[in-house]
Amino acid sequence: MSKLDLIATAPMGLEAIVARELKELGYTDTVTENGRVNFKGEAVDIARANLWLRTAGRILVNMGRFKATTFDELFEGVKALNWDEWIPADAEFPVNGRSHKSQLTSVPAVQGVVKKAIVEKLKEKHGTEWFPEEGPRYVIEITLLNDEALLTIDTSGSGLHKRGYRKAATEAPLRETMASAIVQLSRWKPDRPLYDPFCGSGTILIEAAMLGWNIAPGLRRSFDAEQWQLVPEALWDEARDEAYDAVKDDVPLQITGSDIDPNAIEIAQEAVRRAGLGKEIKLHVAPVSKIKPQGDYGVVITNPPYGERLGDDKEAELALRQLGKVSLYYPTWSYFIFSPSASVEHYMSKVADKKRKLYNGRIQCNLHSFFGPLPPRNMS
Description:
alpha/beta, 7-stranded mixed β-sheet, 14 strands, 33% helix, elongated
């Protein structure tokens, strides 16, 4: 098979980080668009990308793009694509759809035409009129934007933020993909202490530890494409063996988290255990005013509670004020605060060195970066 056109979907604002991750994995031929990074690969790269990408949403196979202003154009364009090379006779192949700024506005009608065109293509290949759809799952998506149709097959199944270590969650959890992005955007390295004083279910701490030990985030879960004929089990075994061999579990970590809510700490402890990091991440119950981070030149990375999580904006502002006071006692530390609050700089009593707009779900937030001094060379 020739090189595949693959897509790593990216939450808004994280495209550059997804592209950087792909380059670090060795995929140099990337093209970044809104919400996605396109790259080339082979069947084994479907497995590698699913296992390794920390900030992407899903890995898709790009089946083709073409102009479609009428249902006839859509039908013929879809039927011309090589579905017969991918989809076996027993496959389940639901079609999802989206349409934006396009003449074909009825998403159910678009989905119906796409399904019919794929069925016609598969009839020619498999010589049957009936498809039971009881076998491996191939989720197809049609995206219409400015009258251009993009057809993809989802290789991931559940979104890549579902790592498998979190069964329960606090009220408004930070997605694992966003937590990893925040850690990557900070200056943290494993030789520096890391503290999260509002750790909730522990996501930032776990994602940091996984980065520190080079643990592929998809190692503890399964993917739709594991059942596909074109991505055989041997390729998944090869990719997983590579990931296990890459783990650096001899790197010492100084990662600590606390939260005022004992229930949150219980949930975090369970997630940390499930991630296999029970001995590396220290957790305890404490209000932010009582935290005592250990060491110098450490990094605080945190998503403080805000209105939606606490149900009370005054409490959220108080939490920020207390964090600002505590920061005065740790002048060598750096602070990375992910929050929708407009008062972060006010309570930290200084202007952020950097502010980056990101979205937690649909809530617009800023990652406020307050850089402390870098460690002396003989310490780093």
